[in-house]
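**User:** Once you have settled down, spend some time on the protein underneath, comparing sequence with C-alpha cells, and judge whether sequence predicts the C-alpha cells.
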Amino acid sequence: MARRVVGLISDTHGQVRPDVHMALAGAEVILHAGDVGGDGVLDELSLIAPVRAVFGNTDDPGDPRLAAEIVYEVDGVSIHVSHGHETGTPTPGKLFTRYPQQVIVYGHTHRHLETRDGNRLAINPGAAGPRRFRLEPSVVRLTVRDGVVETEVVRLVAGD
C-alpha cells in the first residue's frame, strides 16, 4: 500500500511562515486545527495542498470555510480534528474520552505534544503562527502506511 502524508497545522493566527511550504510539501491534504486567523491563511495553505480547517476560539464560528470538527479517513485510519478548546483546556485524556477516532488532532495550547494510548494517538502540531510563550513554531507530517501512523514534527524558523 502507498504511503500517504497528511499535513497537520494549528494556531497560525493570521500568519503563514514561508518554510511551511517546504515542511508540508507532498501532503495530500492539510488539516488545520483552528485559530486560523483569516481567509488569507487558508488561501496560502491551499497552494500546498487542499485544506480542511476547524474554527478555534479566536475564529468566527460562522465562517463557512471553518467547521466545528472534521473526521477524515486515510487508508482505514480515522482522524478527528477540533481545536480542543471545546474541552476547556485540552488534554490527551479528555480527548481520548470524548472522541473515538484513532488519531485526534487538536491545537489551542500552542505546544507540540504527541500521546499514544494503545493504537490511538492524540497530537497537537504546535503553533505555526506568531511565536508565543517561548515555544518554537512547528507543524507535523503525519504518514499512514498499511494502517500504521507515524509522525514527524517539523520545526519552523522562528524569525520573530
